[in-house]
Records
---
Amino acid sequence: LSSGARIGSACLIRSGSVVYENVIIGKKVVTGHNTLIREGSSIGENCLIGTGSMLDGSILIGNNVKIQSGVYLPHGTVVGENVFIGPYACITNDRYPSSRRLSPVVIGNGCVIGANSTLVSGVHVNDNSVVAAGSVVTKDVPSNVVVLGVPARIYMSREEYEARRIRYEQGV
């Protein structure tokens, strides 16, 4: 009656979560409560899908991805490896709803997507870039930069961001 889903070993799927058929979930994936993972989605190993997040159809997620609570990823979204997506980030896939022409967002490897940010249909956030909290990304983001604002603009290099992060963690 159903083709089912494939769920890897050592996974924790919390109560209220819904996993549709034809989903592939790798090893050591943890969901929060009330997550939705629609048909055709594929999640790599060692990932977190936060409480109330929605993977709304045929999403591709790499290994070691941390998706915080309340994140929305629409059909076609691609997320690379070692990515962090902050709470309530919203990804879109239709620039002129409802046009029936979907243009998915691609998030590269090593990216950080800040809380409450919005990525508009069709943008590519290239490897190792950071989207600051609350930003609205309307154009492609080059590799190794930090963007912020509405609309998002380049603010600094990823190298400078990491230096500031380290000083912050050290209390300097």
---
Amino acid sequence: NGRWAMRDDAEFREALYCIRCASCANVCPTYRVVGGHVFGHIYTGVIGTVITPFHHGWEAAAVPQEACLLCRACVDACPAEIDLPRMIVAMRGRIVEQEEQQKKARGIRRLFLDAILPSPSLFHLTLRLAAVMQLPLTRGRTILRELPGPLKRLTRIRAMPAVAARPLRRRVAEVLPARRDSKRTMTFFASCLIDQFYPEIGEAVIKVLNHYGVTVHFPKAQSCCGLPAYYEGHKETAARMARDLIAALEPSPGEYVVTATPPCGITLKQYIPKLVKGDPRWEERGQALAARTLDF
């Protein structure tokens, strides 16, 4: 029933270590809210998401895997230490490959992940347009309570952060004093979240570092770290963005890179080295970036 194929698949063999204790379901935030029926087949929760494609075909994996938040709570709870989130990412990669082979494009999501997100100029222009278009919806607030049209479902049960009127890259000069006597310097990787949605957090980080005698560099070439593309299974796009970010943060190779966005710190320290591994031009540079990355 698919188990031999799972055993022979290096990416998913680890799922066979499962002892059916349901610890992963007990701590899964999605399972605790929606229960097991949404997973569609006998095995529910994140373990079911991983093994169901081998039992019922890969078309059965498309919806359940989207319920995973990749929070890694299941890894901490699993007595067999099965890395289910790693397999979820691998599964998403295979789904993307199958969609490409079958020429099943996913419209706006595909356009955003493969065209807009990896292009810093296009990405920032899109967000600037969004900042203008959201004005009738925000009414001076920093959150969006109701989006129109096909985006309405995103705010059906929650509010969304509004795009900042002025991103950090346009405000950073106001909080970067001309300190040339400092012996300590750092490069600040703001992440698109802080840069475009919460610039006041970035300003606060820079002020704290300045207070402790650190001169902060803010490379304007920096953009998204590629985590959304990586988590969605678009590994080629994520690898391209990894190379671009390495190049953007390299002008001062002796400096530490500090970030205040934990998922992006994980990307710089763990995922980027994986994405450029085996590339003779980028592997060593990716490891060097990981080694000098610090969480604020």
---
Amino acid sequence: MKIYPREFYLKQLRPFYNSDLIKVITGIRRCGKSCLMQSVALELKRNGVAEKDIVFLNLDKHGYKNIVTPDALEKAIDAELIDDKFKYIFIDEIQNVKDFEPVINAYREEGNCSIFITGSNSYLLSGELATKLTGRYVQVDMHTLSFDEFLYMKRFMGLIIGDNRTEFDEYLTCGGFPKVLEFSDTDAKVKYISDIVGQVFDKDIYARCKIRNRIVFDKVVTYLVNNFGSRINLQTLENYFRSALHLPIKKETLNRYIDVLNSARILYKCPRFDMKSKRSLMGQSKYYLADTGIYFARNVDGRINYGPVLENVVYNYLSSHGYTMSVGQIGSLECDFIARKQNEYFYIQVAMTIADRNTEEREYRALSATKDHYHRYLFTLDTLLQKRDGVKHVNLIDFIADGRDLI
């Protein structure tokens, strides 16, 4: 089977192929972590590494599902180590093994191997591995396909590709889970995404977290998924559930549920950030989906609300490119995002169009209020681009389809 090589993530891993640092790949289920590891293994083979020196255990597959204890994991690895040559050990879905950390640590300490592990959620780094191996692992957080990867993978698969706008609308509604591209029928795509979300809840949430009231939890999930990209305040959320739905729920419980969804990579938190103080602000964070297909798979209304959907695409694209994303606070004004990388900041507004003059003024207001030297971006779907106040007005589809970066 041909495997689409996701070059963006391979570039992140290549410097560590022969390092004793444990390579930890996290991300929502079915985002492509297993294929990424297989791509690494294929690349090693092309570079002359012998088949016998590559150990690959997929703990979700037949023959390995009984490996759920540290002893069983160690026995399975040892069975593959047929000589004393340097080995590359790949373990997929390692969180299936409770208390796996000491085993992985022991092999790392021996120093005769390079270890790659994947997990579907951040519980992977919540235990002994995170505390005991400080500075001794490197983490790659993998996302579903970005739009440029979506186009590249369609070409890789030999699929017919339309114009960028048509493809972009498909990408917004059906999302970027790689296997979705194998289905031509929209209903099949939606069912597949629904099944993925179901697996996340069954295997990464219900099986690992103590959710006492699933009915209430599911209502919280529905609210957050349906309101992605909106500002969320815990007090307001508590009041809504108490008054509108007559469900008594505490802020502490709401906060825990949100943390669970973040850990399972269903949602990503985007906190507010004040540019004047260079500090994160409490309250009214926004939450974005790991993949926009999750929203459309859970809702019968297939219409695109371009505002939050486009924000979600920008958030995921820039996050995957190493930017820390925040909701921007500029005095009394707010811009959609402040993107940070090292000591650089970027002001970002996102809108479907600024063809309407009132919309144009609204989108430029926060950007024009900035008085520092940082770059300012306005992403829209417009083909006619505005030149105003030093703001870079960019067509979002072209920007991502070309795999561009902020400059």
---
Amino acid sequence: MSTLILFLPPARPGPATEYSYTLTADGHTALRHATAPAALLPEPTRPGGEVVAVVPARALSWQRVSLPPGLPLGAGQQTPRLRSVLEGLLEDRVLDDAAQLHFAIQPGANAGSPVWVAVCDRAWLRENLQALEAAGRRVSRVVPEFAPGPTASGSPELCALGTPEEAYVVLTGQGAEQGVAVLPLTTMALTLARAGMPPAQAADDEDNTLVVRAEPSVVALAERTLGQQGQRVALHTTSQRALDAARGDWDLAQFDLAST
């Protein structure tokens, strides 16, 4: 089997929309990476092949809420009542009309305890999924590019993305109360990341325990910007990021967008 992992574009889809994609046979190694319109995307081999759509970090916001005890949250229990509860909890926290937003609850969430809710534009997500399905690439899962929770290193991590003209960093792994932060590519991002490190690691800067990655388009800029603070920067390709995202346990296809 194989998996086609593709990044959703920041704008609503149109005739000229192209998708950056990675094709993998084992979920860990990229067989192919390129950009193509929906109709020209490769098809994952059957049986067992799937299409995974990745929502970019800048298209998502993360909200932490406590849902009322006794409210069913499992698969098949995402009712209009649950949607209404989320709208009520989030309407004062989001800039847009809550009715126009898509919500997704973290895996394994329990009512009565704080849970993470991913939030994005509802029409944008739906139209992208419909465009892919119309091209014969029906999406099986929708995953976030980055998600809250512990990182592989057990400490905060930074990933520099974008272009030299519009570079930014994504900060993850700051603790249970912090989601995913998207920040300008400056030394301030490095300061914030180091502030969230365990004291023993933060006190020892010489071993560069803080993980900082950058995609090829901005790796030189990241090295110039963050290297001033003695920070090493590791190259991390778009394919590697796509594979990491697809291995996560989130699925944003919930409520009216739930996979069937």
